[in-house]
From TrEMBL:
Pfam families: Autoind_synth. It is an enzyme of class 2 (transferase). This is Acyl-homoserine-lactone synthase. Its EC number is 2.3.1.184.
Length: 214
């Protein structure tokens, strides 16, 4: 497997990865999770935040995208402060220029079946923290179900809610922030069995070895 860091404007190879990512997101978030507001006739999950401000962290196995996430700087238009601003009742921990919003985390459904821990999920968690450190962010915000908060805490991250959970589409949902630090990266690597860096010095991609816990 490989980790790819993709931003617009993208070259042809990266554009193909992005298109695959958008179609997978539609299958995951619309067809499986029922986010009908995202449904599009072209079968692509693309919103206003898939722009030149966004960084896409994509996991591939061969030529296939098998997982992904999106990172958007908090001092640029982002999902948290527009669509989900009602979930934020507490102050951000620092200036928005020091933060990033983490959205659209997914692993292709067939890669999760029968697994105790998907290596794609582990790679995304480690890559997101690596990327945040490399870019100089001090915290990451996210909106998710309670499960995601519990999962993040389980890998040794310090997570602070930004407000009380609210019901969205019948599920308790909250906004929270994650402290970005070398300790947080060490903790998630230890919890997942990941031992090497996933993002190359140039920031394009890095191969994933066999150190992930299946």
């Amino acid at each position: 497997m490989r980790v790819h860091i993709v931003r617009e404007p993208a070259d042809r190879q990266s554009r193909d990865l992005l298109e695959h990512n958008y179609r997978l997101r539609h299958k995951v978030f619309v067809e499986r999770q029922g986010w009908e507001a995202l449904r599009r006739p072209d079968g692509r999950d693309v919103d206003d935040f898939d722009n030149e401000d966004a960084t896409h962290i994509l996991i591939t196995d061969g030529k296939d995208v098998v997982g992904g996430s999106r990172i958007t700087p908090l001092d640029r238009p982002n999902l948290l402060q527009t669509v989900f601003h009602g979930l934020v009742q507490e102050d951000l921990p620092a200036d928005p220029s020091l933060g990033a919003d983490w959205t659209r985390f997914y692993v292709r459904p067939d890669r999760r079946e029968g697994r105790r821990r998907a290596p794609e999920s582990a790679a995304l968690f480690c890559s997101v923290m690596e990327y945040a450190l490399r870019e100089g962010f001090s915290y990451i915000t996210f909106v998710s179900s309670i499960y995601m908060l519990e999962h993040g805490t389980a890998v040794g991250w310090r997570i602070t809610p930004l407000g009380r959970p609210q019901s969205i589409d019948g599920k308790p949902t909250l906004a929270a922030w994650i402290e970005v630090s070398e300790d947080a990266l060490d903790n998630v690597r230890r919890a997942t069995g990941m031992r090497q860096a996933l993002i190359s010095g140039q920031g394009h991609f890095s191969a994933i070895g066999n150190s992930l816990i299946p």
